[in-house]
Design brief:
Blueprint lengths: L8 E4 L1 H9 L6 H14 L3 E6 L2 H9 L3 H11 L5 E5 L12 H14 L3 E4 L10 H9 L3 E7 L8 H13 L4 E6 L6 H14 L4 E5 L6 H11 L3 E4 L13 H8 L10 H16 L15 H4 L3 H13 L6 H14 L9 H14 L9 H8 L11 H8 L17 H7 L7 H9 L1 H13 L24 E7 L2 E10 L6 E8 L2 E8 L39 E6 L6 E2 L4 E7 L2 E6 L4 E6 L6 E2 L6 E4 L1
Parallel strand pairs: 1-2, 1-8, 2-3, 3-4, 4-5, 5-6, 6-7, 7-8
Antiparallel strand pairs: 9-10, 10-11, 11-12, 13-15, 13-18, 14-17, 15-16, 17-19
Helix pairs in contact: 2-4, 2-11, 5-6, 5-19, 7-8, 8-9, 13-15, 14-15, 16-17, 19-20
Length: about 625
């Protein structure tokens, strides 16, 4: 029997994964809305415009309400379904949420404009997507079940087929292959697509990254094997760690049985627009804009490599990158071969950094590693190294139930926590995803003054390592001459020197600032040497077992104690953010807090004393 082939459908990624892959997710709503009318005319199957890292970036850097962004895009794209990327029980944060939070989040996303929910779990543990998918269906929206593709001794074709059957049984409307690192080859793609088409009746949707240089061939083979929908991105945002170009794939299938029917001339207009927009975000450019075949060996997505580089740079250990890249596959094997995608990529990557920097494997174990090895992120497909698990958990037994089964409903408590700071259910959900960052956002919103990360002006290139802070402008007068000063940004400190990028009468200058004195409070009034005219950290080196230290380089996002507080061993003392994850740092002993050497926003290293506790 001859089957009639429908037109190949395309999902456009310019408003989400395209700029997330190449421009650190920094594209602003103001640069999206002007082109939406033309995007809406193309006839895309969907436009991916929300989810992934966009929610975090909107709050943290752009100072845009992520829900406002969704509503505005929904109004601007009346004819094209809006698609989002949802991490199952993780939603858009980095922990599992109770079922009532998952349901409410899906409800509000649907109400605000999401039509297609691509839902996945980093462990491919179908227990972790069941609640979200059921709620998508309850809202009458399109549920796209997702297989995270990876390569390992335990990720067999039969395993992927079983996942597809499970997702079809849940009532999914389409099935996505999410090749987040670009590991598919033309041959493996053909085998996988043919097997899936023979197993399930769902339309098949392929998402693959261009990192290894074979994504176009992968899509070609997939479509000829029966794939119904492919993900592409308009050409100025394609290639590198991003995706195949939309215009190229439209042209490749033109005048064939798979002709998309999309207008290449209209796509050229859209490409011209984004070509100019991309210039505005030059300092956020990915280091990987060409082909990088190393991903076929180390399986590390490009975004993960940039996070690792930042971790090592803050530690002064960028020269250890090759050793970290070699360590990641070993950690992944110890962990039972999880696919490397948020949040497992951060967990494996951070642990690999600590193994290398500390000089001994698993000398320092993060709370996320402990949670992973306990089963709090789901069941690993492969065998876990029991010696490592014992190091992490001691006598504590891992769980076997669905992680969310251990969580009590939490929407009511979350709502009470921020009742005086929020104005909507959406705000409560923002707080649930990123508590510290959301509270900062709410405070700025209440003040009426948002402080977004500034963009470079045309012709001015700040160093890529210099993430800017809120702009400050003022005039100074010296010997009767007035100068207009504008602080444009700041870079990472080296020892005690921090570079600031300052405009003096519109001329950009780099200024190195060294703080020479600082008052650090202590409970007993001891005199702490705060003269910093000599090189060295403002914090003392950790020298006692009772000193609180960070297990990894990162940024202080919360201080959970005050001077004079009594703490018990295991209490959370500070919270450090590293590789997009917030890590609680616990008191090593019981006692009294006698000195605090950090404030929120400080960058810290593992050898520094952050808090002193006297027993």
């Amino acid at each position: 029997m001859t089957k009639t082939k429908k037109k190949l459908a395309i999902t456009e990624l310019a408003l989400r994964d395209g700029h997330q892959s190449l421009l650190a997710t920094r594209m602003r709503l103001d640069d999206m809305l002007p082109i939406c009318e033309k995007l809406d005319q193309v006839g895309f199957w969907s436009i991916e415009a929300w989810g992934g890292a966009t929610f975090d970036t909107c709050l943290r850097y752009l100072k845009e309400g992520p829900w406002v962004r969704l509503r505005e895009l929904n109004k601007a794209l009346p004819n094209t379904p809006i698609q989002m990327l949802l991490r199952g029980q993780n939603l858009l944060g980095y922990r599992h949420y109770a079922d009532d939070v998952v349901r409410k989040f899906v409800d509000m996303a649907a109400a605000n404009g999401v039509d297609v929910f691509r839902t996945f779990d980093a462990m491919n543990d179908l227990r972790n997507v069941r609640t979200a998918i059921a709620q998508v269906k309850a809202n009458g929206k399109h549920a796209e079940g997702t297989i995270c593709y990876t390569v390992s001794p335990v990720h067999t074709l039969d395993h992927f087929i079983d996942l597809a059957k499970g997702l079809e049984d849940m009532g999914c409307d389409t099935l996505a292959i999410k090749d987040m690192a670009g590991l598919l080859t033309p041959a493996s793609t053909k085998e996988l697509v043919l097997a899936l088409k023979d197993t399930v009746s769902l339309p098949l949707h392929l998402h693959s990254h261009a990192t290894a240089g074979v994504a176009e061939m992968v899509q070609w083979e997939a479509v000829h094997a029966g794939c119904d929908i492919i993900d592409t991105v308009i050409s100025p945002l394609s290639g590198g760690t991003s995706h195949p170009a939309t215009e190229s794939m439209v042209a490749a299938f033109a005048n064939s049985e798979f002709d998309t029917g999309l207008d290449l001339e209209l796509l050229q207009d859209i490409a011209a627009y984004f070509r100019n927009v991309r210039k505005k975000y030059a300092r956020f450019e990915s280091d990987v804009t060409g082909v990088d075949t190393r991903v076929l060996i180390n399986q590390i997505p490009g975004g993960m490599i940039s996070n690792l580089a930042n971790q090592l740079k803050e530690q002064g250990a960028l020269d250890k990158m090759d050793r970290v890249l070699e360590e990641i596959p070993r950690v992944r094997k110890d962990f039972g071969y999880p696919p490397l995608v948020t949040p497992t990529s951060q967990i494996v990557g951070t642990q690999a950094v600590l193994n290398v920097v500390s000089g001994k494997k698993y000398k320092v174990i993060t709370s996320e590693t402990k949670g992973y090895l306990k089963g709090m992120y789901g069941k690993a497909l492969g065998p876990v190294n029991e010696d490592v698990r014992k190091l992490a958990l001691g006598d504590e037994e891992p769980i076997t139930v669905r992680p969310a089964d251990l969580l009590q409903d939490e929407m009511d408590e979350l709502t009470r926590n921020v009742a005086d700071k929020v104005s909507s259910v959406e705000d409560v959900l923002s707080y649930a995803m990123f508590p510290t960052i959301a509270l900062e956002f709410f405070e700025e919103r209440a003040s009426g003054i948002f402080k977004p990360e500034p963009l470079d002006e045309p012709g001015i290139q700040l160093p890529p390592s210099a993430p800017a802070l809120a702009p400050t402008e003022f005039n100074i007068t010296i010997h009767g001459e007035q100068y207009h000063i504008s602080i444009e940004g700041t870079g990472h400190p080296s020892d005690e020197l921090r570079p600031y990028f300052v405009k003096v009468d519109n001329i950009l200058e780099e200024v190195l600032v060294e703080t020479l004195t600082e008052v650090i409070p202590t409970l007993d009034g001891r005199s702490i040497d705060t003269n910093k005219s000599s090189k060295g950290s403002k914090r003392p080196k950790a020298s006692r077992d009772s000193d609180v230290t960070s297990p990894m380089p990162g940024r202080i996002v919360a201080i959970n104690v005050a001077l004079g507080d009594s703490v018990k061993a295991g209490d959370t003392v500070v919270t450090v953010e590293a590789m997009k994850m917030e890590n609680p740092v616990h008191a090593p002993v019981s006692g009294t807090v006698t000195a605090i050497y950090v404030i929120e926003g400080d960058n810290v290293n593992p050898d520094e004393c952050l808090v002193e506790i006297d027993g």
